[in-house]
Write a structure and sequence with these properties.
Layout lengths: L1 H16 L1 E8 L2 E8 L1 E3 L4 E7 L3 H8 L2 E8 L4 E12 L2 H7 L2 H4 L10 E15 L3 H14 L7 E6 L1
Antiparallel strand pairs: 1-2, 1-5, 3-4, 4-7, 5-6, 6-7, 7-8
Length: about 160
C-alpha cells in the first residue's frame, strides 16, 4: 500500500507544480528546457505540446529516454520523473490540450506544426518538505544538536 500512496503523492505534486524542465540527450550532452505539463495519471503519462521543427523532437527520436524535473522552490517540493518519450501527431489530443500556454507559440490548435510529446514515466523520486522557513529552522536546530534534520517526505517510486 505504501507504493500506491507514494505514486499518488508523486502524481499530486506533478499536477500541482505543472511546469517542468524536460531533459533530453543531444549526442553526449544533456539539454533541458521549460515545458507546460498536462498530466494524465490514469494513462500513466505526461503530455506536452511541441513543434515539429523543434530540436527536442529530433533528440527524442534518437534517444527517447528523458527526465522531467518539477520544482516548487517556495514550497520546497520537487519531483524527478524518468521515462520514455515519443512524438505523436494526434490532432484530437492537441485540441484537448489546447489552452493559454499554447497560444504563446501557435495561433490555433489546427496549426500543422504542432505535435504531442508523450512521456511515459517508469521511475520517480519526490521531495516534499514542510516549507522554506520551517526547513531553515530544522536545519539550524540540527546543526546545533549534531542531528540530521527531518526535512519532510522523500520516496523513490516505480510508476
Amino acid at each position: 500500500m505504501a507504493e500506491y500512496d507514494d505514486a499518488t503523492k508523486t502524481w499530486d505534486l506533478v499536477e500541482k507544480i505543472g511546469f517542468c524542465m524536460l531533459t533530453t540527450q543531444t549526442g553526449r550532452d544533456l539539454r533541458a528546457r521549460p515545458m507546460a505539463a498536462y498530466v494524465e495519471r490514469m494513462e500513466n503519462a505526461v503530455y506536452f505540446l511541441t513543434d515539429v521543427e523543434s530540436h527536442k523532437d529530433d533528440e527524442i527520436a534518437r534517444s527517447p529516454n528523458v527526465c522531467l524535473a518539477f520544482a516548487d522552490p517556495k514550497g520546497q517540493k520537487y519531483v524527478s520523473l524518468s521515462g520514455t518519450a515519443e512524438v505523436l501527431n494526434d490532432r484530437a489530443r492537441i485540441k484537448e490540450l489546447w489552452g493559454t500556454p499554447a497560444k504563446a507559440w501557435w495561433d490555433s490548435p489546427d496549426d500543422p506544426s504542432i505535435r504531442i510529446l508523450k512521456v511515459t514515466p517508469s521511475f520517480a523520486e519526490y521531495w516534499d518538505s514542510p516549507g522554506t522557513i520551517i526547513s531553515y529552522v530544522k536545519m539550524a536546530a540540527a546543526a546545533v544538536s549534531n542531528a540530521k534534520p527531518d526535512m519532510g517526505d522523500n520516496a523513490k517510486v516505480k510508476l
